[in-house]
Design goal:
Layout: H1 2-25, H2 62-140, H3 146-178, H4 201-237, E1 248-251, E2 259-263, E3 272-281, E4 288-294, E5 302-306, E6 310-315, E7 321-325, E8 337-344, E9 349-354, E10 357-362, E11 376-379, E12 407-415, H5 421-427, E13 448-452, E14 456-458
Antiparallel strand pairs: 1-12, 1-14, 2-11, 2-13, 3-8, 3-12, 4-5, 4-11, 5-6, 6-7, 8-9, 9-10
Helix pairs in contact: 2-4
Length: about 450
């Protein structure tokens, strides 16, 4: 290895010697004199010129200072107001979230417990008040029976004990008032209260009717308060959506443009069905459409309608009609109503249900008929022979504003069978969970429902 590198080292050494000899032959003159090209002589020194102050501002007047102080104070005030607003917003949002959580956790249980306790107390008080006149009548009736006399003697003994207790309490109270310091009255001897003997019982018996009148007055007042409480509970219940439903459809006004189209999940021909819904109409006319299904050949295959006081259910056309009177409150606005219509082709039995009770039933309605598929289903309107099969969505031709529904609607479901009376009764419970029982043809909250016009979903 060393022998290999030896020729290269010799070459490098010779090259270096040649370079040193070449530079050594040249004479390089070096000038060591001081040479300052930037030196300034004394004759060339320029005279210093005064420079202007960088912030040569004029003196501020007192008005300028006042305005500056005012601006500073306004800026500080705005900053403090913004900071306080932010703090209030954060605190209010946190308080609102806490209240909502507390109400959701304990509101229902506390309300139900208070209502149950109030009902139990009112029932117990009413029972006690009703038993008092009976006891008085039993003791006041004349007779020589041993049972009546024993009851009368026991009551008299109780009255005597009560009177003695009250007399001793009055005596102690009087002594305390007379002997209190600073009263300025010398203590007197104890005032003696005559204890009534059996001879004065007649006077006490005369006081019983007056006590009975007082009890009757209390009973009447309690009954009146109970009626008011029931009215308040009824009005508060109307503000909420029934049957555990979380949303509802709102139809704000009558219009041929306001309706809701429904796309059934399982389009098929139906030999039987049941359709149910909760409705709260604002105003009803002689014919208000709630549920309508039909095709171009027959737009009136299924209809559920209400009038000013009645409910109607038709299958296969208006000729096959089931009517129930007294279902809707006359005159317009009413409470939430649960309506169901069921039909089967085998016997043509059509039934109408209101609030879980069968209110009308008619045999032979469209017997042997089959509800065809491929039709148009809408809520709050009906198509008068102008179904838009394959047409533009939202086409409102054939709608009549006089037939439009206005109000709220929820829990719309449809089954391909006839529900039993127990199933419909469970669906109609106000405090139940009817909205969780969804149909297999139309399911509330699952089947596509598209509001049009001004209709929209509310919570």
């Amino acid at each position: 290895m060393f022998l290999r590198r030896l020729p290269q080292a010799v070459c490098m050494l010779s090259a270096c010697l040649c370079l040193v000899r070449a530079y050594g032959d040249d004479d390089i003159e070096v000038n060591y004199a001081d040479n300052y090209y930037n030196e300034i002589t004394e004759g060339d020194t320029p005279e210093p010129t005064p420079s202007q102050a960088p912030c040569g501002s004029t003196d501020l007047t007192k008005w300028d200072k006042l305005f500056m102080m005012l601006e500073n104070s306004q800026m500080r005030e705005n900053m403090l107001l913004q900071y306080s607003d932010d703090i209030i917003k954060v605190e209010m949002s946190s308080l609102r979230a806490e209240l909502i959580r507390t109400i959701s956790e304990y509101g229902g249980s506390c309300g139900s417990a208070v209502e149950t306790a109030g009902r139990m107390m009112s029932l117990q008080l009413e029972n006690r008040l009703k038993e008092t006149p009976q006891r008085r009548d039993q003791t006041s009736d004349g007779g020589n029976s041993v049972e009546k006399s024993s009851n009368l003697e026991a009551m008299l003994q109780q009255l005597l004990l009560i009177v003695k207790t009250q007399s001793s309490r009055l005596a102690r109270l009087e002594d305390g008032l007379l002997t209190s310091p600073g009263a300025g009255i010398k203590p007197h001897s104890h005032k003696r209260y005559d204890i009534p003997e059996f001879g004065s019982i007649a006077n006490q018996e005369q006081e019983i009717p007056s006590q009975q009148a007082v009890l009757n007055g209390v009973l009447a007042a309690l009954h009146e308060e109970r009626l008011k409480l029931n009215e308040v509970l009824r009005s508060s219940r109307q503000r909420y959506i029934p049957a555990g439903c979380e949303m509802a459809l709102l139809f704000p006004m009558r219009s041929h443009r306001i309706y809701t189209s429904v796309t059934p999940g399982v389009p098929q021909s139906l030999p039987s069905f049941t359709v149910c819904m909760w409705v709260k109409p604002t105003v009803v006319s002689n014919k208000t459409v709630l549920f309508s299904y039909g095709n171009r050949k027959n737009p009136y295959e299924i209809q559920l309608l209400v009038s000013q006081s009645s409910a109607f259910f038709t299958v296969g056309g208006e000729a096959h009609l089931v009517q129930a009177r007294g279902v809707v409150n006359p005159g317009g606005a009413s409470k939430w109503i649960h309506l169901c219509g069921s039909w089967m082709s085998e016997q043509g039995m059509a039934s109408l249900w209101a609030d879980g009770k069968k209110v009308a039933s008619t045999p032979g309605v469209a017997e042997g008929h089959i509800i065809p598929h491929g039709g148009s289903l809408q809520l709050g309107q009906e198509r008068n022979g102008c179904c838009t099969d394959g047409g533009m969505p939202g086409f409102e031709s054939g709608f009549d504003s006089n037939l439009a529904f206005t109000g709220k609607m929820t829990g719309v479901n449809m089954w391909d069978r006839v529900l039993t009376a127990e199933e419909i009764s469970r669906l109609a419970l106000w405090e139940g969970q009817g909205c969780e029982q969804r149909g297999n043809i139309v399911a509330w909250g699952v089947t596509e429902m598209v509001p049009h016009g001004g209709a929209h979903f509310i919570n």
